[in-house]
């Protein structure tokens, strides 16, 4: 059938490459609103030795450099880490403005933080050399927010064996446990996938692992430094009573009949309908890809049944923005005619427009594509509003087909600036030999730097199996004013 096998899509988000100059933290002092009163302990005596390679390399002299105001690289990554907190939790970071207790980020000899609010006024958190990775920064802030390492939990001996005789002499204290009153598990089961878990080789002397998971399959899972695990987030949510991310506004996968409070807009001449399969495509929704029978819905405007000029308006629920900029993401499947289009509007409400006023943000046209496509649309709304999806039938089209929408998300974040889409990524991953790379199209940053991403799906010769990505600056005729190297502009 027309839709065929769904193509997997890999979107590499390069939101903040070469854009250091646009990411200026007013000050490196960050206030975290603490709510829990933790005992006055340091994790690992004040140093997060989980990031032990880095800290070991940094040597034992804790060079407490002062606050580095122009460490722009770390600044950019810090901001990205804060944005992840905003996106996924209700924790909001803001510049310090005289509060009694605050966090001061500095470039010390390693990556480390105390656990919780120690109520010392200026509480220092070090993002040293090589710590400027988003997951490392998230990890350190999890300490500051009150979390110990996962393998310090009181019940850890039920899940891992600590191989004491393989641990470097003098490092045994890193494997202490803390009872449930100090390190509450918050009712969440032991999590091998936690960002706060040490890796199997932490503090080893020799080659054999120091942490052996009781379920062998987790041996290489522990120590992940990619992103928050679901349990990391659940614990944060429980400790800070979060119900949703502080930048989250709305999302809908259309699995429920109430379609998340969305409505058919006034003035429409055709309807968006909630279906699981459309003649002419798509054959399945995006969320489930047809894997679950009896579910897997999306919204569809049947353009083949519509007359020229017909419009279908799907309007989101009323929202109240806090930040003035938003990113709308959604999946779109276009099996309609070549002149049919999807328009994204916002309907904004104020005293002079109590019933709202439509403002066009973007028109998505172009020829039909036989697959679900991820779209990002940047919004800049500052007042009460709704998002409006307007499908328009404009000309002749196929006998069956239309416009389909699924998995809509709206957050108060900036959209990724560049997206590289790799078709059938699973196949690329499976069938690319090591030391073989693929290149993205070239992208040009706001500052005029053109670059390309290079990806080794099966790793380079020395790192087989380790997917790696490189950014290449590309010189183009007509380039003016670009410098390389360009410190502070990475
Ligand atoms: C490492 O193991 C060797 C051999 O058992 C031992 O002599 C040495 O003291 C150990 N080093 C550390 C730092 O634990
Ligand atoms: C979370 O809720 C509990 C119970 O209602 C309350 O004791 C605690 O102070 C709340 N924490 C925050 C950060 O609001
Ligand atoms: C769309 O309309 C056409 C023509 O009326 C019809 O054949 C087709 O089944 C409809 N598609 C859906 C998904 O209802
Ligand atoms: C929307 O958010 C959900 C839950 O976080 C996620 O599963 C889905 O893939 C997101 N959709 C888009 C278009 O990013
Ligand atoms: C791997 O690729 C690089 C870059 O193309 C090349 O210089 C190198 O010789 C290759 N190594 C092997 C073992 O083929």
UniProtKB/TrEMBL annotation:
InterPro entries from the UniProt entry: ConA-like_dom_sf, MAM_dom, MATH/TRAF_dom, MetalloPept_cat_dom_sf, Peptidase_M12A, Peptidase_Metallo, TRAF-like
Pfam families: Astacin, MAM, MATH_2
Domain Peptidase M12A: 33-243
Residue span(s) of domain MAM: 250-417
Domain annotation MATH: ranges: 415-490
Catalytic residues in the record: 140
EC number: 3.4.24.-
A molecular function (GO) term: zinc ion binding
Cofactor(s) this protein requires: Zn(2+)
Signal peptide: 1-24
One Gene Ontology cellular component: membrane
Bound cofactor: record note: Binds 1 zinc ion per subunit.
GO biological process, one term: proteolysis
Sequence positions that bind Zn(2+): 139, 143, 149
Keywords: Disulfide bond, Glycoprotein, Hydrolase, Metal-binding, Metalloprotease, Protease, Signal, Zinc, Zymogen
Entry-linked PANTHER family: DISCOIDIN, CUB, EGF, LAMININ , AND ZINC METALLOPROTEASE DOMAIN CONTAINING, MEPRIN A SUBUNIT
Protein name: Metalloendopeptidase
């Amino acid at each position: 059938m027309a839709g065929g096998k769904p193509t997997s899509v890999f979107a590499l988000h390069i939101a903040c490459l070469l854009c250091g100059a646009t990411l200026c933290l007013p000050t490196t002092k960050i206030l975290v609103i603490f709510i829990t009163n933790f005992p006055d302990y340091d994790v690992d005596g004040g140093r997060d030795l989980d990031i032990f390679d880095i800290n070991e390399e940094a040597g034992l002299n804790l060079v407490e450099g002062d606050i580095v105001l122009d460490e722009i690289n770390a600044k950019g990554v810090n901001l990205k880490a804060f944005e992840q907190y905003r996106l996924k939790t209700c924790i909001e970071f803001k510049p310090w403005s005289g509060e009694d207790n605050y966090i001061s980020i500095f470039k010390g000899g390693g990556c480390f933080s105390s656990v919780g609010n120690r109520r010392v006024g200026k509480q220092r958190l070090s993002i040293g050399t090589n710590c400027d990775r988003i997951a490392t920064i998230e990890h350190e802030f999890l300490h500051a927010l009150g979390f110990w390492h996962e393998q310090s939990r009181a019940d850890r001996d039920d899940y891992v064996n600590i191989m004491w005789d393989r641990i470097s002499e003098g490092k045994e204290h890193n494997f202490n446990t803390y009872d449930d009153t100090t390190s509450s598990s918050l009712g969440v089961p032991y999590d091998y996938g936690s960002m706060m878990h040490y890796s199997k080789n932490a503090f080893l002397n020799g080659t054999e692992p120091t942490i052996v998971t009781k379920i062998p399959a987790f041996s290489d899972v522990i120590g992940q430094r990619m992103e928050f695990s679901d349990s990391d987030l659940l614990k944060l949510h429980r400790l800070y009573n979060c119900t949703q991310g502080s930048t989250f506004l709305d999302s809908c996968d259309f699995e429920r009949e109430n379609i998340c409070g969305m409505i058919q807009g006034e003035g429409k001449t055709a309807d968006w309908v909630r279906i699981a399969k459309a003649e002419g495509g798509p054959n399945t929704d995006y969320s489930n890809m047809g894997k679950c029978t009896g579910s897997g819905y999306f919204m569809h405007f049947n353009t083949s049944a519509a007359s020229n000029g017909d419009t279908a308006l799907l309007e989101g629920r009323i929202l109240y923005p806090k930040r003035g900029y938003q990113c709308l993401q959604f999946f779109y499947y276009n099996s309609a005619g070549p002149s049919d289009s999807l328009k994204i509007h916002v309907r904004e409400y104020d005293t002079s427009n109590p019933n709202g006023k439509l403002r066009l943000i973007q028109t998505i046209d172009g020829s039909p594509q036989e697959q679900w496509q991820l779209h990002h649309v940047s919004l800049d709304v500052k007042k009460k509003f709704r998002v409006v999806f307007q499908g328009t039938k404009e000309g002749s089209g196929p006998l069956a087909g239309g416009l389909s929408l699924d998995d809509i998300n709206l957050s108060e974040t900036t959209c990724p600036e560049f997206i590289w889409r790799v078709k059938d990524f699973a196949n690329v991953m499976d069938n690319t030999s090591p030391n073989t790379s693929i290149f993205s199209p070239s992208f040009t940053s706001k500052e005029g730097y053109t670059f390309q991403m290079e990806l080794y799906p099966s790793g380079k010769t020395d790192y087989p199996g380790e997917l790696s990505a490189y950014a290449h600056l590309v010189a183009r005729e007509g380039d003016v004013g670009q410098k390389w190297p360009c410190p502070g502009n990475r």
